[in-house]
Amino acid sequence: MPPKEDIEYYSEFLIKLVKDQGIFLAILFVLFLIALYFLWKYLLKTIERSVEESSDKTLKIYQSSIDKDFFKFQSLHENQIDAIHKVYQDFNELNMHINFLLNGENFSDQADPNELISHIILLRHNFKKTFFKNKLLFNKDLCIKIERLIPKVDEFISTFQSGLFPEMTSEQRNENAGLNDGFIISGIWSGGTFETLLNELLEINTEIEDEFRKIVGTD
User: Fold this and answer.
1) Is the N or the C terminus of the chain less surrounded, counting Cβ atoms within 10 Å?
2) What secondary structure letter does DSSP report for 107?
3) What does the UniProt keyword field contain (predicted)?
4) CB burial class (10 A; 0-12, 13-18, 19+) of residue 192?
């Protein structure tokens, strides 16, 4: 509500206006003031609405940008997990078959070493291809270890193949097993030939698993 002094001032002004200019002009002046007041209120409301709409629009644009960034991050994170999982699976399968070739497995038939070494060569190729496609996902130290390991796997394959006996017939295999308590001796290698390689395989296998656990949040 306007101060008392303002009310008295406008009252005196209107009375003077009526006396000097007549009632008609006084009414026009009052209507002008009323129109001016409502125009001011309208402009004020329009500005407030414009600011609010602009703010909402800016907020929506910002939210849309956040959503896009989050989607990109989420997709990248999921792709990263899938890639590391694939590297780990390929490496673990290679590791598992090398161990099986050297140590066998309880309650399993003795595999043909020539067939098994051919499968290990295929696994070696798959692992190398998968690793180099996703190399940037791993830290430098781990990359160096894996890159040094691959030639050692090649050395293992060559060393194992060099110690194999020539392929045996079924009769020769049965005779071999009969002389060795049911086990077929497929080749001869010096003691401890593969020990260093198996230790390195185990170490790198653990490091890849640790990297995977960090990314999926199970560390």
Assistant:
1) N
2) T
3) Membrane, Transmembrane, Transmembrane helix
4) exposed
Between the alpha carbon of residue 69 and those of residues 64, 72, 74, 78, the distances in Å are 9, 5, 8, 14
Which stretches within the chain are classed as H helix?
Answer: 4-21, 23-103, 113-133, 140-163, 170-179, 195-216
**CATH architecture assigned to 70-216:** Up-down Bundle (1.20)
Integer Cα distance of 61 and 72 in angstroms: 16
Provide the whole-model pTM. Answer: 0.59
Residue 35 Cα distances to 30, 32, 38, 43, angstroms: 9, 5, 5, 12
Distance (Å, whole) CA 98 – CA 120: 7
Token pair for 208? 């890849």
197-210 pLDDT, tens digit each = 888 888 887 888 78
Residue spans of beta strands (DSSP E) within 13-67: none
| Total Cβ atoms within 10 A of residue 147 | 13
The radius of gyration of the chain from alpha carbons, rounded to an integer in Å, stands at: 43
Instruction: Copy the structure tokens of residue 167.
Output: 């392929």
Among 126, 92, 113, residue whose Cα is nearest residue 156: 113
